[in-house]
Amino acid sequence: MQSFIDSKLAWGLLLAASLAFPWVAGNDYHLTVMSTAYIFAIATLGLNLITGYTGQLNLAHAGFMAVGAYTVGILTVDHGWSFWAAFPMAGVVNVVLGYGVGLLSLRLKGHFFAIFTLCVGYIMFLIIEKWEGLTHGTVGIMGIPAPEPIGAISFESPLALYYLTLGFLVLAVWAMRRIVKSLLGRTFIAIRNSDELAEALGINLMRNKTLAFMLSVFYAGMAGGLYAGFVRFIGPDLAGTHHTFDMMIFMIVGGLGTVLGPLLGAIGMPWLTQSLQFLQEYRFIVFGPILVALVIFLPHGIVGSFLAWRARRAAKEGRPHAQD
């Protein structure tokens, strides 16, 4: 029997809580914080696919998210495209770019791959900041149009944008669950566990790593495109490596190699920092020890540690256990 944490009932309760959130949020600011968290949760799911499931640490992930955002910004502001026409291009451009970067970088392993992608991310940041003719440089792109109405549904209000971002998050989670539970997902996990063993089983390492990388940056691109339509202003800071490290924290706290873990981390961590705002510049004195305690006492993240505990309990009782 599947555990509650991976059951349809659990996911249904999470969805119901998300749908009801606006009615208990109290103000538009809370809706904005949660909508932004949903967007970064989509990007974090993508990073988790290449890092948590395939075992490759991509430190250029925020750069790819920025590419998606700038694709929407440039096409809508400079070329007069509608948001809905430009939005899919955020994913397409990232997939093409990710294919090229993947072919170059995925020949490396371990920390060599991480360092290479860190350099790639910084190059992306420099291109965005310096190429004023294309990206508007340090000024950024302002006046990005909001998503156009779909029928009678308009996306001008924070409430409408909240449900729009929630809808895309639900779609992203559904697709990710289908991927990781498929034969392709099992292939990614086999590569993460051992390149040599996966190759011995007949798995084409380069092809599957590149595919995982392309799917990962596709998620980043769509998150970036959605971010551009939500915030309606983007600057080079979006490509900063600190955003990648934020997403890494979301994964580590929630649980690498699970779908629910990065989702909870991406939504819960911003609210933790928001709850400490009253401490002003001293909030990180509290936030830091909390983060360290989580890493020490829950080394596999919240969801990952629970799954590990459940596996040990199932082994003692001599019964099989389900994985997330």
TrEMBL record:
Domain of life: Bacteria
Any GO molecular function: branched-chain amino acid transmembrane transporter activity
Record key words, sorted: Cell membrane, Membrane, Transmembrane, Transmembrane helix
TM region(s), chain numbering: 32-50, 57-77, 83-104, 111-128, 159-176, 211-235, 247-272, 284-309
Alphabetical list of CDD domains matching this protein: TM_PBP1_LivM_like (cd06581)
Membrane topology: Multi-pass membrane protein
This protein's GO CC annotations: plasma membrane
Protein's cellular compartments: Cell membrane
UniProt KW Transmembrane helix keyword: yes
Protein name (record): ABC transporter permease
Species in which this protein is naturally found: Comamonas aquatica DA1877
